[in-house]
Design a protein that fits this description.
mainly alpha; 5 helices
Length: 70
């Protein structure tokens, strides 16, 4: 769902590729589901670019700006 996708992106920006941790915030998803979602959607969602922008902007404020831009 769109809500799950937003949670995934937010947690990906916080925990990078710690898919087990990300899955813990998505009640009906397993770690394998998160891994599959990442590899199916990383280019479409520009996940590497979002993370890079967040790191350059610094911390939580950068993460919030990156999410709003997507």
């Amino acid at each position: 769902t769109e809500a799950e996708q937003k949670i995934f992106i937010d947690k990906f920006l916080a925990y990078h590729k710690n898919f087990r941790k990300i899955a813990s915030f998505l009640p009906f998803k397993r770690t394998a589901d998160c891994v599959a979602f990442y590899y199916r959607n990383k280019k479409r969602l520009r996940l590497k670019q979002l993370r890079k922008n967040m790191m350059n902007d610094g911390g939580f404020a950068g993460r919030m700006r990156a999410i709003k831009k997507s």
